[in-house]
UniProtKB/TrEMBL annotation:
Protein name: FecR domain-containing protein
Domain FecR protein: 114-209
Domain FecR N-terminal: 16-56
Organism for this UniProt entry: Pseudomonas serboccidentalis
Alphabetical list of PANTHER family matching this protein: PERIPLASMIC SIGNAL SENSOR AND SIGMA FACTOR ACTIVATOR FECR-RELATED, PROTEIN FECR
Domain of life: Bacteria
Amino acid sequence: MLTRRNTPPPAQQALEEAADWLIRLSEGELSDAERAEWEYWKSSTPERSRAWARAQLLQNKLGGLPPSLAMSALDRPNSPERRAALGKLAMILAILPAGWGSWKLAESQQWSADYRTAVGQRRELTLADGSKITLNTDSAIDVLFDASQRHIHLREGEILVQTAPDNSPSRRPFLVSTRQGRMQALGTRFTVRELQPRTHLAVLEGAVKVELADNRQGTPLIINAGQRTDFSSRTFGQVSTADRNVGAWTQGMLMADKMRLADFVGELTRYRRGFVRLDPAIADLRISGAYPISDSQRTLNMLAQTYPILVSGHLNGFWIMLSPA
């Protein structure tokens, strides 16, 4: 029986072994000895059986390996490309079944966007009117400027917007949209992050007017400087004080002020390729400090030096485990 959605993933070692067998099977027919070894492996322990059930689920969804991994997997057995493919495949198996759908959607959205960033990359754009857009890691936008509007559609990820006055005769509004709603800048600087199924907005300067995608007849909400909110396509969340460090990522920093380690790890993983697993025993550990997001290994080492945390790496650092020291 396939692994249920709410069942914890199998042990890391079993997932890595399942990923290796999946790659070996994708390369062609196994010899009789290899097939006997594979048959024995997948039934030798409950953890391996569970891991292979996830591999079967991925096969059923795709009919094989994800295309972006297949070519790397066919490389030399000990090549960096193959090892990276193995680690990425183990990560996908760990987060199935929901993870594959999100991963596939994100890739398709990013590659058809006007502007995009890769994992760990940041990018600053100056638009035709002088406005500036900074894209955070793994983000994608479309830009539409015409005679009636200046429109940014955030497909995925997070952006910082610094608007400039419009000198055209029509005084075009500056709009930012997500799947959840539309925001109109009122001479302002603000961040927008789409975190399904809600959009998160924080205003640093000026104000932003928000209309919901599925409730256009409702009263718009005005968010002023120093405030933040989140919203779905139908409802607004509470308005609260914006975190003063909300834009620290534009300076390459991840700021923590008595932050749960689990929440910190969730943010850090946005900036690195690979998988970080956290022992639940230290999930609520509170941490503080300023950490570089461009060097996640350095950040992890800083945590280990300051707090009772043991950092262990596998697959050349692609898979990281944090446990009590």
